[in-house]
Amino acid sequence: MKQDVISLTRQQLNKLDIINKANAGFLTVPEAALGLSERQVQRLKKKVRELGSAAVVHKNSLNIPHNSLSNETIDT
Q1: Spatial contact of 5 and 53, defined as CB atoms under 8 Å apart
Q2: pLDDT tens for residues 6-57?
Q3: Whole-structure pTM over 0.85, yes or no?
Q4: How far apart are alpha carbons 25 and 49 in whole angstroms?
Q5: Which residues of 7-35 are buried (b: 16+ CB within 10 A; e: fewer)?
Q6: Which of 27, 28, 46, 72 could disulfide-link 22, Cβ–Cβ 3.0 to 4.6 Å?
Q7: In the chain, where are the structural domains located?
Q8: What secondary structure, in 3-state letters, does 15-73 show?
Q9: Residue 67 and residue 76: Cα distance in Å, rounded?
Q10: For residue 1, what is the DSSP state?
Q11: Non-local CB neighbours of 8 within 8 Å, separated by 6+ positions
């Protein structure tokens, strides 16, 4: 099985910690919903169970914007 390295920001680590505590039963969904709706917390709990820490990383965060300049253009 292939393992990828995931780097998380401090905010993502805090969110992952709260979701893991909610999954373990130490926090209820309303307690874990700091700034999120309860439904979002339920979805995050499910994704963390399925994907692990990769669930808290935004899926579009690593994509390059379509309107960005190429490196060749920037260098000239």
Answers
A1: no
A2: 788 898 889 889 999 999 999 999 998 878 899 999 999 999 999 888 888 8
A3: no
A4: 13
A5: eeeeebeebbebbbebeeeebebeebbee
A6: 27
A7: 10-59
A8: HHHHHHHHHHCCCCHHHHCCCCCHHHHHHHHHHHHHHHHHHHCCCCCCCCCCCCCCHHH
A9: 18
A10: -
A11: 16, 53, 56, 57
**CA 45 to centroid of chain Cα atoms:** 11
- 43: tokens are 């979805």
Q: Return d(Cα 33, Cα 27) in angstroms, integer.
A: 10
Q: Quick count: other Cβ atoms within 10 Å of Cβ 40?
A: 13
